[in-house]
Specification:
Number of domains: 2
CATH class of the largest domain: Alpha Beta
CATH architecture of the largest domain: 3-Layer(aba) Sandwich
Shape: globular
Number of helices: 10
Distance between the termini: 15 Å
Radius of gyration: 19 Å
Helix content: 25-40%
Number of strands: 16
CATH superfamily of the largest domain: HAD superfamily/HAD-like
Largest sheet: 8 strands, mixed
Strand content: 25-35%
Structural class: alpha/beta
């Protein structure tokens, strides 16, 4: 068990979906971790060591937060249970949930009318477009494709997607080759000034694709908003990541930590790089050393 040199007493009550009442004695610390390539191992599981250690930190008073690009149902499918986590940021910052009851703390969905205009950018260079809600991923494609998970629905009719889904949290566009990604990125940024559009790549793959969310949405934006709600100073936030959608939180959180397996761009911005990769509990091994040395 890690012993910290301070004590924390936190109590809160969700009065409304977006209102949290807080009483805090002394400063709290927040630990934020990405999933794929960071907390998740290559087999898409979280080690028992990680679960036990993070649960212990949570019980000591640390605020533990998942910050993932996955939509909620996809995240839930790999995390399984939330005993070790307080809050969950999904869709690369679009939505934040209270892990106790899965209620939304805040959300920034994409406008339906803006989303509908994206169909014109589907071409023979495009493999598919994923429209991501909390419970479902609606995959628009003209190619023969089968669902790879229970929460994915293949939909060849663009307009029918909007009859089925509620809030749209983020959109992914996969191209047939990386060489087409930059061209589409430039076109979308010129056309859609109200959207946040970026090129995404994970540390464990060379494949790149386009990610789209509401303007201003990012992992760090959501972390910062949650920290404000909980009255946590930015200097007291430790963030772990490996991929391109982790760049902003690694750069801007008080302590940014890149996994050993992280992309070079992430390591360049990090304050620290872990000694171990995601398959060897890099997050946990770093925290054990770092927190004991505070």
């Amino acid at each position: 068990m890690v012993k910290t040199d301070y004590s924390v007493f936190l109590f809160y009550d969700i009065m409304f979906e977006d209102t949290i009442n807080i009483g805090v004695i002394c400063s709290m610390k927040m630990i934020v971790f990405d999933l794929d390539g960071t907390l998740l191992r290559s087999n898409k599981t979280i080690s028992d060591r990680s679960r036990i250690y993070l649960k212990d930190l949570k019980e000591q008073g640390y605020v533990t937060v998942i910050a993932t690009g996955r939509m909620y149902e996809s995240m839930k499918d790999v995390v399984k249970d939330f005993e070790f986590v307080d809050y969950i940021i999904t869709d690369a910052g679009a939505t934040c949930y209270d892990a106790r009851d899965s209620k939304i703390v805040f959300a920034n969905p994409i406008d339906f009318e803006i989303t509908k205009k994206l169909e014109q950018y589907y071409s023979e260079r495009c493999d598919y477009i994923d429209i991501c809600t909390k419970e479902k991923v609606y995959t628009y494609t003209k190619n023969k494709r089968k669902p790879t998970d229970y929460y994915i629905e293949i939909e060849p009719d663009w307009n029918s997607i909007f009859e089925k889904c509620s809030d749209i949290n983020h959109i992914s566009i996969a191209m047939n080759a990386n060489e087409y990604v930059n061209d589409l990125y430039d076109k979308l940024n010129k056309q859609f000034l109200d959207l946040n559009i970026f090129i995404m790549q994970d540390s464990y793959s060379n494949k790149q694709w386009i990610e789209i969310s509401k303007k201003g949405v990012s992992k760090y934006g959501a972390i910062s908003k949650l920290a404000d709600i909980l009255n946590i100073d930015n200097e007291n936030i430790i963030a772990f990541g490996d991929g391109l959608n982790d760049l902003d939180m690694i750069k801007n959180c008080g302590v940014g930590v890149a996994l050993k397996n992280a992309l070079p761009e992430v390591k360049d911005l990090a304050d620290y790089v872990t000694k171990y990769d995601h398959d060897d509990d890099g997050v946990i091994e770093f925290l054990k050393e770092y927190l004991n040395n505070e």
